[in-house]
């Protein structure tokens, strides 16, 4: 990690200049800061904090005897959590497992892509621009349509499956749609740009002289990557993995369209069906809350372990 | 040109009542917050459960406001692609002077209920004067007091309603609902891949169809067919034991990989792509698919019988245009207009005399058994009995778990 200190900064840094300023300036700056935060604060309060409390309240509702469908009474029914956890822990674990595999796959595909555009093609603005547009291009079509398109491509009679069968890469009755493999592929594909772009933004600022220095010091390409490039790009990697993992673990479109009804159900689908189909609002709310907490815990642990100061 | 009223029905009411601007803004702020909370939680519904009270019907402003807002499913009304309009609706406006705003807002009974329930429970206007929902959901809405009572004096044509639909268990005397269209849920198969065809529901479990079968995620249709196969009279007085027995069949076929997926309307795409070769499906879909994709599939009523479902027109509790809504219902219960719709949507028309009227509109459809079923076919079609609230929660919970949700 010594290399991290390599880019020399002017001694004293920006802090030195600030200290010179008077106290009044500092105070005024502080007030302006708060005023600037205010709209965002109100927004978050109205559209995040309040709904979270509403969600929490709903998750503790109870169904009074004789109540009709969709009728619940406010209560403190903590048993709701035990019930849904008992029934749906496999789906919860599966969601995280799928999201983890998809995140790893997106990292393996996205990092080289970002490296190519940001480092290898540095200076060739036009080519960089074209490749960046290509990375973002899938966003121009709707999420559902893109996933639907994969269904057609991977269909039993589509262009892929017969070829794989002929090459014996798939058994004669093997298939790609309605499998866990298809769901993970769908997640990887759909969230790939979220992985690639933060890493690109980070690698774009990478000082290539550091890589040169690495080879000057007789480090192999891999060693240079491991000790210089990768550590420097960690903020991008962390941002990318978070932006992929969090939405992927709550996703239900991929599992619904590309999965089956046996071993691919993700927690998002369960929440959807508890809410709309069974009209079990407390159960759906409890599951949503559990998902939120679990992600919070996982993400905190992850950022603590791998996070850098630059991220926060 | 009059100033356009806001789309939100509550705001519209407030503006129409000519409140001061300040009051409107205040009201809107409060309402947004309230409806937001209601959407996230269920504050409004909790209260209703305790006192059992239901909201009063809204005041009818039909005489002043010559409009009616109708929420329906997709591909469920005659549509002219060239002009982008609904010819029969335009004729209705011409005949009555009532403007009809038609929207294809409903893409699932459950999702639509989830969307409007909080507002209906509070007796608010959901911006629709007619909603179109399937029997069991209609039963739920009527039971919960979310609909207005129809004045049959305004709907003289309602007398044309088919005999077997006149008295249904969820709405005696059709006080709150009128049938829009009906249809069968049965089985269909790809004629090339399954040359022998299918005759029973259990034929779907043939080994050569492994992984190529899809069933509907609509509990009453899939479970209805499975229970009929098991010899249950689904319209009669069956209970949890019968339901469980058939649910076990479904669970096993999913676990064995015989059933590839459990789907809503999207099973049609899998029939086209070839991923699905045999399905439990809705009759009208297959007619439309065959029309669009060249007659590749065949629909049949299984030997043990099929389910018969209907979608029903209802006036939601907060609607201020009930008389206009009734005028529209009356219009579509005219046999000629009913036949016009049936010629386009290919479902069973609930209107007596529509078959005779069809002779003039499209003689080729007069003998289509899926639009005008024979008495024998109707004998084999069964309506899934209305479930109590507790049964519904219990059964649909277990059905969802069986299909992996």
Automatic annotation (TrEMBL), chain A:
Taxonomically, the superkingdom here is Bacteria
Q: What broad class describes the main subcellular location of this protein?
A: membrane
Under the heading InterPro entries, the entry gives: MetI-like (IPR000515), MetI-like_sf (IPR035906)
Stretches that traverse the bilayer: 33-56, 96-119, 126-145, 178-203, 224-246, 283-303
Q: Return the Pfam families for the record.
A: BPD_transp_1
Keywords (alphabetical) are: Cell membrane, Membrane, Transmembrane, Transmembrane helix, Transport
Q: Give the membrane topology, semicolon-separated if more than one.
A: Multi-pass membrane protein
> Where is this protein found?
Cell membrane
A cellular component term (GO) from this record? plasma membrane
Q: Which GO terms describe its biological process?
A: transmembrane transport
**Residues in domain ABC transmembrane type-1?**
92-302
- Does Transmembrane count among this protein's keywords? yes
| Region described as Disordered: spans on this chain | 1-22
Q: Which family does it belong to?
A: Belongs to the binding-protein-dependent transport system permease family. CysTW subfamily.
* Name the record gives this protein: ABC transporter permease
From TrEMBL, chain B:
* Organism superkingdom: Bacteria
Keywords on record = Periplasm, Signal, Transport
Q: Which CDD domains match?
A: PBP2_PotD_PotF_like (cd13590)
Localization recorded for this chain is: Periplasm
GO terms of molecular function? polyamine binding
Task: Note whether Transport occurs among the keywords.
Answer: yes
Could you state one GO cellular component term attached to this entry?
periplasmic space
Q: Give the record's GO biological process terms.
A: polyamine transport
The keyword Signal belongs to this UniProt entry's keyword annotation: yes
Q: What is this protein called?
A: Spermidine/putrescine ABC transporter substrate-binding protein
């Amino acid at each position: 990690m010594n290399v991290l200190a390599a880019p020399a900064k002017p001694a004293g840094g920006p802090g030195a200049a600030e200290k010179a300023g008077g106290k009044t300036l500092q105070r005024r700056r502080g007030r302006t800061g708060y005023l600037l935060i205010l709209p965002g604060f109100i927004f978050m309060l109205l559209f995040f904090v309040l709904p979270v409390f509403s969600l929490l309240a709903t998750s503790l509702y109870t169904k009074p005897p004789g109540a009709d469908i969709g009728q619940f009474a406010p209560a403190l029914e903590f048993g709701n959590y035990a019930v849904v956890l008992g029934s749906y822990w496999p789906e919860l674990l599966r969601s995280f497992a799928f999201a983890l595999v998809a995140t790893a796959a997106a990292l393996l595909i996205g990092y080289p892509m970002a490296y190519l555009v940001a480092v290898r093609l540095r200076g060739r603005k036009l080519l960089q621009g074209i490749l960046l547009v290509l990375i973002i291009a899938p966003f121009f079509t709707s999420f559902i349509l893109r996933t639907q398109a994969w269904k057609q491509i991977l269909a039993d009679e589509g262009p892929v499956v017969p070829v794989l069968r002929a090459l014996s890469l798939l058994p004669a009755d093997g298939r790609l749609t309605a499998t866990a493999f298809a769901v993970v592929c769908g997640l990887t594909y759909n969230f790939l740009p979220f992985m690639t772009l933060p890493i690109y933004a980070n690698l774009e600022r990478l000082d290539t002289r550091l890589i040169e220095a690495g080879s000057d010091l007789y480090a192999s390409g891999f060693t240079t990557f491991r000790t210089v490039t990768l550590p420097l790009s960690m903020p991008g990697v962390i941002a990318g993995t978070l932006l992929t993992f969090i939405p992927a673990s709550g996703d239900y479109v991929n599992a619904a369209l590309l999965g089956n009804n046996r071993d691919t159900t993700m927690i998002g689908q369960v929440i959807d069906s508890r809410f709309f189909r069974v009209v079990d609002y407390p159960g759906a709310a409890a599951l949503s809350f559990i998902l939120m907490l679990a992600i919070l815990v996982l993400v905190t642990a992850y950022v603590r372990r791998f996070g850098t100061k630059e991220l926060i | 040109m009059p100033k356009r009223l806001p789309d939100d029905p509550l705001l519209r009411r407030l503006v129409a009542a000519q409140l001061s601007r300040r009051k409107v803004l205040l009201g809107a702020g409060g309402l947004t917050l309230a409806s937001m909370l209601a959407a996230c939680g269920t504050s409004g519904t909790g209260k209703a459960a305790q006192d059992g009270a239901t909201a009063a019907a809204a005041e009818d402003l039909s005489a002043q406001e010559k409009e009616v807002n109708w929420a329906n499913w997709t591909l469920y009304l005659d549509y002219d692609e060239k002009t982008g309009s609904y010819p029969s609706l335009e004729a209705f406006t011409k005949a009555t002077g009532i403007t009809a705003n038609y929207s294809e807002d409903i893409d699932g009974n459950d999702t639509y209920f989830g969307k409007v329930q909080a507002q209906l429970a509070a007796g608010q206007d959901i911006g629709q004067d007619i909603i179109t929902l399937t029997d069991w959901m209609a039963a739920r809405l009527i039971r919960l007091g979310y609909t207005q009572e129809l004045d049959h004096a305004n709907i003289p044509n309602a007398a044309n309603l088919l005999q077997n639909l006149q008295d249904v268990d969820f709405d005696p005397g059709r006080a709150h609902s009128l049938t829009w269209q009906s249809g069968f849920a049965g089985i269909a198969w790809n004629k090339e891949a399954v040359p022998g065809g299918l005759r029973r529901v259990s034929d779907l479990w043939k080994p050569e169809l492994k992984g190529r079968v899809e069933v509907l995620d609509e509990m009453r249709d899939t479970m209805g067919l499975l229970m009929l196969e098991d010899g249950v009279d689904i319209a009669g007085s069956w209970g949890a034991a019968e339901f469980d027995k058939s649910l076990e069949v479904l669970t096993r076929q999913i676990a064995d990989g015989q059933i590839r997926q459990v789907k809503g309307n999207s099973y049609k795409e899998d029939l086209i792509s070839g991923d699905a070769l045999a399905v439990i499906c809705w009759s009208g879909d297959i007619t439309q698919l065959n029309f669009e994709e060249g007659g590749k599939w065949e629909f049949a009523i299984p030997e043990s019988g099929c389910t018969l479902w209907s979608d029903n027109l209802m006036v939601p509790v907060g609607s201020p245009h009930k008389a206009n809504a009734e005028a529209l219902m009356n219009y579509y219960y005219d046999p000629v207009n009913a036949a016009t719709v049936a010629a386009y949507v290919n479902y069973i028309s609930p209107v007596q005399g529509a078959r005779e009227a069809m002779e003039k509109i499209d003689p080729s459809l007069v003998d289509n058994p899926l639009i005008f079923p024979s008495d024998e076919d109707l004998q084999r079609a069964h309506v899934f009995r209305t479930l109590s609230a507790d049964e519904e929660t219990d059964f649909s919970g277990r059905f969802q778990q069986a299909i992996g949700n």
